[in-house]
Structures
1.
Amino acid sequence: MITTVDTKYEANKLRKEGHYEEALPIYRELWEKSDDQYIAAGLLHCLRKLELFDDAIPLADNLFAREPELPWCHFEITWTYIQGIIEKADNNENLEKILNVAERVIKLNAGDIARKIVVLRVLKLASSSKQWDVINEWAPRINPESLSTDPKIIDGKTGWSDQAQWYNYRIKGLIHGSEQSEVKEAVVLAETAAERFPRQQKYFQRYKALANSISGDLPAAEIILQSLCKGDRPDWWLLHDYSKVISSQGRKDDALRIMYQAAKACPSHKLTVSLLEDIGVICLELEKHEESRSHLLLCKYIREKERWHVSESVISKIANINGIIGIEHEPSSLQDALVVCQNYWDVECNKTADSDEKKLRERKIRRGLIGSLILTPDDKP
């Protein structure tokens, strides 16, 4: 006669040997006849390993509601939530749902690895949806020194380490916090991160500049961004940040010139909608009405093409400009507006290039030299 004890032994033996498909129906039958937490944990383990999360997650919810005392049960519930919900969540997921599950995992206290995965995932999702209050609540729940500093390799490319990611999210949360003390803390953390992670140095230097700008130290922000924008091909988003700091100090013409450089350098026009709006605003302040309208229209057309919301501010500004200069030469399509705007960018960037070349000639710098370099002995300068 086969007893319940024999059946449990057989199910456990199959599970431990990795025969989850064979063990699963046995566990199901046992669970229907008993509310034994050991059986429940075994059943949940098999469901999780077979990735049958439609069954695993309701069972995990059921067990969590019973407040199980068995550590193994805590472990299985935790990893069912992590693998079935947390790790599968994308940027479109309901953040409240994820936070509810994440709180359950933290409450189960299943270990440092589980806590790390959950906290970093919450921070990533909150950053994507710009929920800075969530970041500021969750980032302190993990000690960054406990996170790995080894860069991750993703599709053969070197990525960010877990610790660098934590600094990234934490600093962004502090920058967008309302308290000045939080912004000052962001400056300190950005300095630390820039030294600790050379590969991501420009990102953390940028955060330091943004934090200085928000706190009112515009000259400090300008120095950092000016340095980051040196070279032949500075990143367009750094140029955009630089231009905004310049504009905030009242140098509108210089700011507009840098914004045009940023627009020309951007590889995808749909990335530039906020930059285009800023150009439209600053041109309006400089009473360059046609330039302003062309950029605001380009912003509008791109948003409409991508089915994004067009703000009332943009629509209102276009209408006001049309009231001043009329609609006779208004670009009527995205392509028309793009051609007009690109012409403005090219003219301004060519002026800048000519000016830079003139400065080099005045300094008598010789370019394109070819020759040999002879190294001197170590004891000589």
2.
Amino acid sequence: IDNEKNSPKNNDDILEMLVDYVDTHFKDPKLTLKRAALIFSYSEKYLSHMFKVKMSIGFNAYLNKLRIQHACHLIDMGMNSVTEIAISCGYNDPLYFSKTFKKATNKTPTQYIQHRQET
């Protein structure tokens, strides 16, 4: 098999593949920079640096952003169990999810749910 055709030619290709992977798998609680580095056969440090430079946001910040956006979408669609929302967005720990959600939206998930139900 000729791997040359399948191998990324430059950083942009690698980054595009990484972003596509994160965009597709962000709901997976096992998705971490370490796991991505293993999947793509690059060091965590290299991927982290490249991601930050090219995307102007850190890997974990990007991952959390996707997860919180999805959480807001689920709430907007009527889901109202914080634990279910947390798990559906890739968080194993509803408390950590709540802290991350509040940091991103300035509301706890419960406050966000109540606000959505009032409007």
3.
Amino acid sequence: NITKEDLYEAMKTTAGPSSLQKLIISDVLTEKFGEKVTDKQVDKDFNAQKEQYGDQFAELLKNSNYTEESYKEVIRMNLLIEAAVKANTKFTDEDYKTAWESFVPKLTVQHILVADEATAKDLIAKINAGEDFSTLAKENSLDTGSKEDGGKLPEFDHNTPYDPLFIEAAAKLKDGEVTQEPVNGSNGYHIIKMIKNPGKGKMEDHKKDLETTMIKARLTDDAYVQSILSKIMQDAKIEIKDKDLKGAMDTFLKQDDSSKESSK
């Protein structure tokens, strides 16, 4: 007979510190930023991912040892961390200027995806000779999600997780223009036709968009996120009474000088 206490003691040694760490971080962040992370927002992000992966979603959760509820808690934690980073990050004028250089407004395009450069060049020649882009997309595009709609893609911008070369090439086009050279993407060669490019406009009108971009960049910087969380955890004055788990938060509570400096 294995008791609950036996199981607890066995798991405490291996998974105890990391599990306690997650619980404490979740508790502290919820207390400080919980009002900014609603169940509605968590469900929205969850359903967006569920729709994105379609029939594969349930299998992906299973393979990662998540239930729907436990995965929602992962989403909640990520949103809490995002709220913490937003609340503790200030941007300089130089930061805005740097982000503005790579800013792309919301674009609407059609595209044709083919497997090789020769085919793409042949299609560009046909388009230039007057053949209909939408018809050629339906007949030739490998993108099954857009070909039946003449290759039309949903509106996107610099924050959309498309191939950077695709976004860069599209942003150079004016309304009605077509790329004259195939765009070599990660999944083949693209021919892009611009439907609507509103232009960048003025930086002052896009500060919120730029902040979103910069926050996303900060969230991919593990050292930066760690420095933010460390400051919050230190301010929370955490006390762990179990001597076996005493060091569970050392990663956040014992920071060297360089980490402290990066959080300023």
4.
Amino acid sequence: MSWIKRHKKLALFLALTLIFLGWWWQRSQFTPERWAAQPGERHHIVDDLLTQYGGLKGMSQEEVVSLLGPDTDGDQREERLTPDGREVRELLAYPIGSYGLGWGYLFVYLEDGAVTESRIYVD
């Protein structure tokens, strides 16, 4: 008697698990096409984007826009009060959909036209 015949339930469970893991892995893979086509589902692929592209660090603003498309409308800036005064940083903001317990955004910070940092914020 073969192993599969003796362990039908276990074999079925393992097969279904492999199918599910393959589907989940494919669903979480970043491609520029998926990013553009599914704005509300970006939360599934944003982590893979940051992993594949090293957090986008060092890329120019043009390269980021070429990869992800234009950001939200308006001139995005972050202002912080520091002991030395006020610090203003330019950024690109991309909505990524439901992330955790709120709506998520990918903030890409720029200095002299190049990416210095990227973060996910939940509103």
